[in-house]
């Protein structure tokens, strides 16, 4: 696998509820990313983090929040402000030992609204 | 600003046919990287290739080949003698090689369906 573990595989959200998607990496690498995938839309960047305690907004950060308290963990919270959260969410990392820019992806979380 | 266009939304072929997936990009960067990823039904994207902007050599890996043409800003991907296992969504991506935040831009993907 890509050294990235995402959980859960499927997640359901009720109206007005915040939900958190887990992303863990076990290879002590710095850069981690969250992408959202909608059918026919490709991958759109939500947030990314280059180092612990620092993260940057991507193209579609509204309605989402992240934290990076530990190098190995980069959880994504989908807040109630995100009015259209149904999508496939992918977490990724880069690796300094690989071709520059190569992304390693987790297996994704499918989020649906009840 | 960067942009990656994969104009083919879906391609359907019969096994053993050759198929080419198109990728056209726009960037103001003088040096950059181009990528192809494969997303099988399981959902996890898998890296296929990275190409540097200063290296226009075409590459072949088994049944896969890539044609990079800087003059037309294209980085096309050909699968020879397609197989059912090639059925997946394929993404082309672009990333600056220097400066900035090194964030890749993805195309919308091309869904390839290979029928037995």
List the helices and strands and how they pair.
The complex is a heterodimer of chains A (about 110) and B (about 120).
Chain A: E1 4-7, E2 10-13, E3 19-25, E4 32-38, E5 42-51, E6 54-57, E7 64-66, E8 76-78, E9 87-94, E10 103-105, E11 109-113
Chain B: E1 3-5, E2 10-14, E3 19-21, E4 24-26, E5 32-39, E6 46-52, E7 59-61, E8 64-69, E9 74-79, E10 88-96, E11 105-106, E12 110-115
Parallel strand pairs in B: 2-12
Antiparallel strand pairs in B: 1-4, 3-9, 5-6, 5-10, 7-8, 8-9, 10-11, 10-12
Concise summary:
The complex is a heterodimer of chains A (114) and B (116). Chain A is mostly beta strands and 114 residues long.
In whole angstroms, the N-to-C terminal distance of chain A is: 31 Å
Total helices of chain A: the number is 0
Report Rg of chain A. 13 Å
Strand-residue fraction of chain B? Answer: over 45%
Order of helices and strands of chain B: EEEEEEEEEEEE
Q: Uncertain segments of chain A of ≥5 residues (pLDDT<50)?
A: none
Find the count of extended strands of chain A (DSSP E, 2+ residues).
11
Question: What is the approximate shape of chain B?
Answer: globular
Question: Helical stretch count of chain B?
Answer: 0
H and E string of chain A: EEEEEEEEEEE
- Write down how many β-strands of chain B occur, each being a DSSP E stretch of 2 or more residues: 12
> How would you describe the oligomerization state of the chains in this entry?
heterodimer
Radius of gyration of chain B: 14 Å
In words, what does this structure look like?
The complex is a heterodimer of chains A (114) and B (116). Chain A is mainly β and 114 residues long. Chain A is 0% helix and 51% strand. The relative contact order of chain A is 0.33. The model of chain A has no long low-confidence stretch (mean pLDDT 91). Chain B is built from no helices and twelve strands. Chain B has strands at 3-5, 10-14, 19-21, 24-26, 32-39, 46-52, 59-61, 64-69, 74-79, 88-96, 105-106, 110-115. In chain B, strands 2, 5, 6, 10, 11 and 12 form a six-stranded mixed beta sheet that branches. In chain B, a hairpin with a 6-residue loop joins strand 5 (32-39) and strand 6. At the A-B interface, strand 5, strand 9 and strand 10 of A face strand 5 and strand 6 of B.
């Amino acid at each position: 696998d890509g050294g990235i573990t995402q959980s859960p595989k499927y997640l359901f959200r009720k109206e007005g509820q915040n939900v958190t998607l887990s992303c863990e990496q076990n290879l002590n690498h710095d850069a981690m990313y969250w992408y959202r995938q909608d059918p026919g839309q490709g991958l759109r960047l939500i947030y990314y983090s280059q180092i612990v305690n620092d993260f940057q907004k991507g193209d579609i950060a509204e309605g989402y929040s992240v934290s990076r308290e530990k190098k190995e963990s980069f959880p994504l919270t989908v807040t109630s402000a995100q009015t259209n959260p149904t999508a496939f969410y992918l977490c990724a990392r880069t690796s300094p030992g690989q071709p520059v820019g190569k992304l390693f992806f987790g297996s994704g979380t499918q989020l649906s609204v009840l | 600003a960067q942009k990656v266009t994969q104009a083919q939304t879906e391609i359907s072929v019969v096994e053993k046919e050759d198929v080419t997936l198109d990728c056209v990009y726009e960037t103001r960067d003088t040096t950059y990287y181009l990528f192809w990823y494969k997303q099988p039904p399981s959902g996890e994207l898998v890296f296929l290739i990275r190409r540097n902007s200063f290296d226009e050599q075409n590459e072949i890996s088994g049944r896969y080949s890539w044609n990079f043409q800087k003059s037309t800003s294209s980085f096309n991907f050909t699968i020879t003698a397609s197989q059912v296992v090639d059925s997946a969504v394929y993404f082309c991506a672009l990333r600056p090689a220097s400066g900035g935040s090194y964030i890749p831009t993805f195309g919308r993907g091309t869904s390839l369906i290979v029928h037995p």
